[in-house]
Design brief:
The complex is a heterodimer of chains A (113) and B (114). Chain A has 113 residues and is mainly β. Helix content of chain A is 0%, strand content 56%. Chain A contains no helices and eleven strands. In chain A, strand 6 and strand 7 form a beta hairpin. Classes of the chains: A mainly beta (113), B mainly beta (114).
Chain lengths: 113, 114
């Protein structure tokens, strides 16, 4: 049972345009969400997070939007740069949990120069 | 320079052999984690440790074992009981095991069983 889903395995975007990566979740107990970026043969690096008390969090070129009623979050990258080409994972954690992140399957973003 | 190191980067093992993957952190983090990544799948939690001398099973602990004798170190042993051990293994740590404590990942070890 995949509780965190990233339905687009890949996405290609032109340099300078907006990249929008989507993530859906099924468990209404999730209340904290994160995005990680991963280059090949490297560990994921933390990008941005959002708590369920917010609907938007912004950090430079990266903005995460949370729609609790739709159980949907998205990561916007503006403007996209070739160095953003990587696999992006969303992750969620539960109100009742302490340690556990549930990860999505990832979306491979390719930014075309 | 603080961080998490994993060694080796690539590891080959014959079927039926146990193998131990190293994970060391100098971030002074209490909590450490082991994940496994397979193609087309998200990261799945194998084991985690909230504090020295304590560890708990994650979602896919069968065929794996860990120890946490020192704060800095959390080695993972892939035993011969693990039916499909070929994967990319990631170690992570966080200040505590609180769910809002960001987990920081090492560079990973790719294990291939021949």
């Amino acid at each position: 049972d995949q509780q965190v889903k990233q339905n687009s395995p890949s996405l290609s975007v032109q340099e300078g345009r907006i990249s929008i990566l989507n993530c859906d979740y099924t468990n209404s107990m999730f209340d904290y969400f994160l995005w990680y970026k991963k280059y090949p043969a490297e560990g994921p690096t933390f990008l941005i997070s959002i708590s369920s008390i917010k609907d938007k969090n912004e950090d430079g070129r990266f903005t995460v939007f949370l729609n609790k009623s739709a159980k949907h979050l998205s990561l916007h990258i503006v403007p996209s740069q070739p160095g953003d080409s990587a696999v992006y994972f969303c992750a969620a954690s539960r109100v009742s949990g302490t340690y556990k992140y549930i990860f999505g399957t990832g979306t491979r973003l390719k930014v075309l120069a | 320079d603080g961080g998490i190191t994993q060694s080796p980067k690539y590891l080959f093992r014959k079927e039926g052999q146990n193998v131990t993957l190293s994970c060391e952190q100098n971030l002074n983090h209490d909590a450490m984690y082991w994940y496994r990544q397979d193609p087309g799948q998200g990261l799945r939690l194998i084991y985690y440790s909230q504090i020295v001398n304590d560890f708990q099973k994650g979602d896919i602990a069968e065929g794996y074992s860990v120890s946490r004798e020192k704060k800095e170190s959390f080695p993972l042993t892939v035993t011969s009981a693990q039916k499909n051990p070929t994967a990319f293994y990631l170690c992570a740590s966080s200040v505590t095991s609180g769910r809002r404590d960001t987990q920081y990942f090492g560079p990973g070890t790719r294990l291939t069983v021949l």
